[in-house]
Amino acid sequence: MKIINVILTGGVGSRLWPLSRKGKPKQYLDLFEGKSLFQQTVLRNKECCDEIMIVGNVDNCELSKEALNNLGISSYKEIVEATPRNTAAAIAFAAFDVGEDDILLVTPSDHLIEDLDIYHQSVRQAVQIAKEGSIVTFGLKPTKPETGYGYIQIKNNKVLGFREKPNEETAKDFLKQGGFYWNSGMFCFKAGIFLEELMVSQPEVYETSKRVFDLKNFDNKLPLDVSFLIPSISVDYAVMERTKKLQAVIGAFKWSDMGSFESVYDYLIKSGHPIDKNGNMVIGSKIYTEFLGLKRCILVVTDDAILVLKKEKSQDVKKIYEKLDQINKDLQ
Predict the structure, then answer these.
(1) Which of 105, 114, 129, 223 could be cross-linked to 254 through a Cys-Cys bond (beta carbons 3.0 to 4.6 Å apart)?
(2) Distance between CA atoms of 90 and 8, rounded to whole angstroms?
(3) Which helix (H) or strand (E) segment is 128 a member of?
(4) Same domain, 180 and 314
(5) Domain that holds residue 178
(6) pLDDT in tens, 187-222
(7) Count of CB atoms situated within 10 Å of the CB of 309
(8) 191: domain CATH number?
C-alpha cells in the first residue's frame, strides 16, 4: 500500500484575470515566496506521501513538467486529459492507475496552506481513517463570512450536508450557527473504495472514464474523441454528497484557495507588499502610481491588460473574463 498525492491541475483561475490566463493559470504564477502554488502543493505533501501523480489537461502538462524540473523532481506519474471533464473523472483516472488499496490524497494545485505541522497532522489523521475504509473530506474552520467558498456542515466528524457558495447574509448565518466549515476540495481514500462508490452513484461516469483510461497511450495521454462521452460532473456531486462512507477531518491550519484578488491582497500585505495610506495596492508594475480619492483599490498591470477594482468586488472579476469570451478570446 502506497500513499499517493494526486494533484489536480485543471482550472483557469478566472477571478485572477489578467494575471491568470489560459496559457498560464494561477497555480503556475510565481507570486508566492518565489514559488508557484503548484510547487508549494508538491513540496508540502512530499513529507506525507510516497508518490506524486499529476492529473491535468494537455494545456497544463508542460507547465507542470517545467515547475517540477525547477524543484529537481523527475520521478512522478502523470495522466494527461485530452479535454477537461471535471473532478469526478479526473480522480477516477488516478484511481484506475493505482492499486485498489493505495491511499489517494487528492489536492487541488492552487491552494495556499500555512501552519504545515498542523496540516501534516490533519493529513496523517485522514490517512488513518481512509485505511479503515472511509472516504475523508477536509473542512476548514471559517474565519469570515466568505462568499467565494462552498461550505460543509459537520457534526462529530460526520458530514451532514454540502452547501454551495452562499450570499453574504447566508454566510454570516453559517458562522453564527456554527458547525459549518469551508469545503477545501481535498479528499483522502483508498482508490478501490472511491471507484466502488463512483460505480454505484454515477455508473456512466465510471464506465466512460474506464473506457477512456483503457485507451490511453504509452505517455498516459487520454484520447480526445471518446473523452467527450464522459459526463462533466464534480466529485462533490458524483460521490461526496451521496456516499455513506464519508467522514470529515477538521483542519486548524490556515488555508486559502487564492481564488480572488482579495485573497492575494491579504497575502501580499502579510508578505510586505506596499500599499498607500488608504490601502490601495499596485500589482505588476513599478511605475509611480497615485490613487486620488480611492480606498482599498487594486491596480493590476500586465503587458496587454490593466484591471482596476475595489477590493470587495474581487469575486466579480470572473464576469470580465467571461465577457472576453465574446469580445476578445486572445486576452483570456
Answers:
(1) 114
(2) 8
(3) helix 116-131
(4) no
(5) 3-256
(6) 999 999 999 999 999 999 999 999 999 999 988 899
(7) 18
(8) 3.90.550.10
